[in-house]
Design brief:
Layout lengths: L1 H26 L1 E6 L4 E6 H7 L3 H6 L8 E2 L1 H8 L4 E7 L7 H11 L4 E4 L1 H6 L1 H9 L3 E4 L12 H19 L5 E2 L8 H9 L3 E3 L7 H4 L2 H11 L10 E6 L3 H16 L3 E2 L38 H7 L9 H10 L2 H7 L3
Parallel strand pairs: 3-8, 4-5, 4-9, 4-10, 5-6, 7-8
Antiparallel strand pairs: 1-2
Helix pairs in contact: 5-12, 8-9, 11-12, 14-15
Amino acid sequence: MKSKSYAVRIFVCLVLTLATAMQLHAGKLLTINTEATGEFYEADRSAVNKQLNSEDELINDTISDSGTYYNRPQLVKLLANTRKVVLTFDDGPHPRTTPKVLEILRRRRVKAIFFVLGLQAAKYPELVKQIHDEGHLIGNHSYGHKNLAQLSDEALREELGRTSRLIESITGSKPEYLRPPYGAMNRKVLTAAKAEGMKILLWTIDPKDWLQKNEASVLQQTERQLGMSSGNPRGGAILLHDIYPSTVRALEPLLERLATFEYHIASIDNLDAQSGNFWAAAQPKLLRNASFYRRFDPELSQHKLLISILKPHPQNQRTAMAMLKARKSGNLFAYLVKNPS
């Protein structure tokens, strides 16, 4: 009996030791949890730092000329003194959230660039085609969201080439833009992108929707970084992710705020890095919210009671008998809300 108890204690100690070691290892990882897809993308912090070249080094590198690499300083130079923003979405598509983003952009007549993952495009090719058919640009975000700066030359070519071929097979067009996951960059990534015929596009505005997953925080951070909250509005390239419900909820209020400050949505494919001329024709302008009706989708709240009350029920109509029953049961108010006519 004593020997069995001793064996159990040893086993428990081993399990606890293993769990502690795993927690310590996890703490060293830079993790982005793409909640909607259920995927976990990991990059070792120390490895990232070792593989990255500084922004200044890349700017001065002969291969990173302004025509192939829209780095942060280049985007600041082109956008900061304007009221133009470039809307970008990473890590999709996802059937739960991407269609809602597309619906909002369609109503607002706004175009964006979607940097899709190859693994997501393979799962949901119909969404990739919808993005393309609705006039948005599709960019390459690698196949599996790996840190490209850490990969071998062969693995790097496979990550980019496999994704580009997949996008081309769905849309008929090869992607012209690459956004490396995490913005992880070095000369090897620049060279590989150029070999694939892609320009690299980073960002200047990061509301950290991937971290906070809260629409109020997304709006606050975007307004602060664009200078709207300080009364000194400036342009920029906004990094968002079309895989989070909180980002979907923040998108329309964000577009309304941009309209209030008379921003224009710039199209990166018409951006001339040399002249700063963004448009081949007149610039489309965000209209104020009076020009649009705003519809609240109760399903985005994920609140069962709210959904049951506010979700339209076209078959339900008020009847005297039903109203009497609702009154007797104390649910008359809920009945009237669910059956407005």
